Structure to design on (694 residues):
């Protein structure tokens, strides 16, 4: 490994980029300039007037403030809506703007660490939405990063990876996190279920209704009100739970001096950490782990964005019945894609088993193959491709691959969508 | 046994060419299928370097390759074919038992019958020139079966059919008349009549004309016309008609594919062994 291993957290208000050392695992946040100490980079872009020069982060704000350029903010939201922005009469797609933003971030990381190669890049985003994820992959490829080196996680998964990378006493019991950002207040919780092999990590996320604008913290009375709100939230969410540690993150927790009530509540026999780099670090930790021969995280992670069922089928190999797993519970749905080549023998139905995590029930789902060309028995090879459009929606495609030149393929495809409940 | 067979997803760089079929085989399953359904075409030459390399290097079955290399000079062809089928696991034990029985029956057959079976198999595969060569070889051989008029008549008839499939009506008519003289089958005369109708320039020998004059040639002609009419709206003609009714782009593509297929069939039919 000679290239950079990066984690990049993309949020509507701030983004972060974190580099992890391939050997020591030490993480280091990237700042835009030497003067800036904060690793929080505003997710904004500004085009300098009449010139094709672009600025990002605080510099973009400054240029816009001095009327030197036109700024576009909320780039993530814009991209998720497949929106666009018109600057000096030119319409820029959200993808184009986000590409320029990410390209700049990567360029800064490369410059900071004097390295031109990227071996692994993991994006961290609030939620995994199909078209947005495709967009991120396209952008990464435009930035010269190979598809297989790009991965995308949601915040819950990044939180879980970050916590699991900490000493064991941090996650002996439940771990919680409050993320106070411009876009709202988010609560994360995770626990490791022991006694199973591999061990299960259950993580969840909840957007709390009690979120407020961070402008509230500009006044003493506002700070008091915010503290009261968060204290009530913490009491409600953490009551009667055996919690080992609590993390505080987000722009709202850059300083915790205003949250004395909250700290008093959560510091009750628990470890409390405040930091701004949980998601970017979690992503960077995975970026490194993906390149290891043996993962440092031998866990099955069950959380939003991960499929909750194991999809398999039975087939004969060398005369013996084998279980072929096409999707395993705990796999990121965006990356859970598997294909297998089969030859139906005396059957025109493909049967898949769906074993739901935590339930004794195993469902059977069937795909009728009678639409495929009629040929003698065992002379049709089919490729079964299982993919997901969310953690609950599975697509099964069956493609006719024929039987070599003896029975040429027609390329006919049978597609079925299933809802995994 | 019903269910699904899991394919070995190994990429084959150099497929195995089967001259008899004019096609390439890309997997162990295809190789098994070829052996199972075309045992009559397979002789000792099949177990050669080309096959061993395909099994070992391309299919990644080095153990099977080693076994075959070791046993080729010691074991019977049929036993080695069974070893291949067993190791690839495309056929289950019941199917393998059936294959073994067929091989045994084949082995018990006389040399003449074996030659006929090979020729028949080539004919079924559309390799008419190759089948014709084998029928000719059989007719010129000294196998005892040829002493019987019935057997010789059958081979003559089959040889005539190979000419007919290659549009050589004159030769087809000659062999059909020879066959009729040996077996005196009305069906042969009927075929002779049809062939003569396909090419009006053929001059049949006088005895053949006489024999046909005593038959219901009017009825046969009627049958032929009906068959022509039926053929115009079914099979390949129907496929062509379907493509002709499509838009310009699809029509062009479809018709090109059909012509390509016909050309291929024609090339295969001419391939001699």
């Amino acid at each position: 490994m000679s290239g950079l291993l990066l984690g990049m957290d993309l949020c509507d208000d701030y983004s972060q980029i974190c580099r992890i050392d391939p050997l020591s695992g030490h993480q280091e946040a990237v700042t835009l300039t030497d003067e800036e100490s904060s690793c929080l980079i505003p997710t904004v872009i500004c085009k300098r007037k009449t010139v094709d020069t672009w600025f990002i982060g605080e510099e973009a704000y400054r240029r816009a403030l001095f009327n030197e350029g036109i700024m576009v903010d909320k780039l993530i939201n814009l991209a998720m809506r497949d929106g666009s922005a018109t600057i000096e009469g030119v319409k820029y797609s959200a993808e184009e703007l986000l590409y320029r933003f990410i390209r700049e971030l990567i360029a800064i990381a490369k410059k900071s660490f004097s390295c031109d190669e990227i071996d692994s890049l993991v994006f961290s985003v609030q939620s995994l939405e199909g078209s947005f994820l495709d967009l991120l992959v396209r952008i990464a490829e435009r930035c010269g990063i190979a598809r297989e080196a790009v991965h995308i996680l949601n915040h819950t998964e990044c939180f879980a990876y970050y916590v699991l990378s900490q000493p064991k006493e941090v996650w002996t019991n439940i771990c919680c996190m409050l993320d106070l950002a411009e876009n709202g207040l988010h609560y994360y919780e995770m626990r490791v279920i022991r006694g199973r092999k591999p061990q299960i990590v259950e993580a969840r996320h909840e957007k709390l209704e009690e979120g407020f604008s961070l402008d509230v913290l500009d006044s003493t009375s506002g700070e008091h009100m915010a503290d009261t709100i968060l204290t009530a939230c913490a009491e409600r969410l953490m009551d009667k739970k055996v919690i080992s540690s609590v993390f505080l993150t987000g722009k709202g927790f850059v300083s915790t001096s205003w949250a004395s009530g909250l700290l008093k509540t959560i510091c009750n026999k628990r470890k409390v950490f405040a930091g701004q780099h949980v998601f970017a670090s979690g992503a960077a930790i995975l970026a490194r782990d993906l390149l290891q021969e043996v993962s440092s995280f031998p866990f099955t992670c069950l959380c939003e964005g991960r499929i909750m069922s194991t999809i398999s089928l039975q087939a004969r190999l060398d005369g013996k019945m084998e279980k072929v797993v096409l999707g395993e519970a705990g796999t990121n749905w965006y990356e859970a894609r598997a294909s297998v080549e089969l030859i139906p023998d005396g059957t025109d139905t493909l049967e898949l088993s769906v074993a739901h995590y935590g339930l004794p029930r195993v469902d059977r789902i069937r795909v009728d193959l009678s639409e495929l060309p009629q040929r003698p028995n065992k002379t049709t090879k089919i490729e079964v491709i299982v993919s997901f459009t969310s953690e609950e929606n599975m697509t099964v495609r069956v493609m006719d691959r024929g039987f070599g030149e003896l029975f040429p393929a027609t390329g006919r495809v049978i597609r079925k969508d299933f809802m995994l409940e | 046994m019903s269910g699904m067979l899991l394919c070995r997803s190994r990429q084959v760089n150099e497929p195995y060419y089967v001259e008899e079929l004019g096609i390439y085989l890309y997997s162990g399953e295809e190789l098994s299928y070829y052996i199972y359904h075309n045992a009559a075409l397979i002789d000792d030459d099949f177990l050669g370097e080309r096959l061993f390399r395909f099994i070992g290097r391309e299919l990644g079955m080095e153990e099977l390759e080693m076994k075959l290399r070791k046993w080729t000079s010691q074991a019977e062809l049929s036993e080695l074919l069974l070893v291949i089928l067993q190791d690839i696991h495309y056929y289950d034990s019941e199917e393998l038992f059936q294959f073994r029985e067929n091989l045994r029956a084949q082995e018990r057959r006389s040399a003449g019958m074996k030659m006929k079976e090979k020729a028949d198999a080539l004919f079924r595969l559309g390799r008419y020139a190759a089948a014709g060569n084998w029928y000719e070889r059989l007719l010129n051989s000294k196998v005892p079966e040829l002493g019987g008029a019935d057997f010789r008549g059958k081979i003559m008839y089959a040889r005539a059919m190979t000419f007919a499939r290659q549009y050589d009506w004159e030769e087809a008519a000659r062999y059909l008349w020879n066959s009729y003289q040996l077996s005196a089958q009305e069906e042969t005369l009927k075929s002779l009549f049809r062939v003569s109708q396909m090419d009006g320039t053929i001059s049949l020998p006088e005895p053949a004309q006489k024999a046909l004059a005593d038959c219901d040639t009017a009825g046969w002609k009627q049958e032929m016309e009906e068959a022509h009419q039926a053929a115009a709206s079914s099979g390949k003609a129907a496929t062509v008609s379907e493509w002709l009714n499509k838009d310009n782009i699809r029509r062009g593509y479809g018709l090109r594919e059909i012509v390509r297929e016909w050309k291929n069939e024609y090339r295969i039919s001419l391939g001699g062994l």
Q: What stands out?
A: The longest strand of chain B covers residues 3-6. The interface with chain A takes residues 1-7, 9, 21, 23-27, 29-30, 33-34, 89-90, 92 of chain B (CB under 8 Å). The beta strands of chain B are 3-6, 16-18, 23-25. Chain B has a mean pLDDT of 90.
